[in-house]
Amino acid sequence: MDFKQIQELIKIVGKSELSELSIEQDKFKITLKKAVNPVVVQQPLRSAAAAYAQAQTAVAENGGSAEFLDLPAPAKKEKTIDNGKYITIKSPMVGTFYRSPSPDKEPFVKVGDIIRKGDHICVIEAMKLFNEIESEFDGKVVKVVAEDASPVEYEQPLFLIEPA
Question: pTM for the full model?
């Protein structure tokens, strides 16, 4: 088999549905393999609350009980009465909210703590990156609104701060 025939085989395999071709002649052997691109199917993400609601609806339609699902209840959005005297620190991104730098460490801040501009107040994990969130002003922590290790959305309230 000469070089021109090998080139012709490469073209044929490239245009065909074949992913591999092997040919043996006398003392000559050639194997051609075509890289196959995997098909990736991406489905839209659902929030935990949407998944919970869908599961509850499915159980209710079937007249059953949801005990076997072992799903956490969605976080309830609390209305806070701040009378305009508190500042709300909101999440700058979508991710998972953590009050401490690691599970075995103390929280960055607790209710009653005095914070200064630039102090680290929490961590938000987004796409396996841990982003330390800093306070943008001085004040006293009045309430921690978000639950530790829970998903948060962009602009979701995290803390209520009494300005200093």
Answer: 0.50
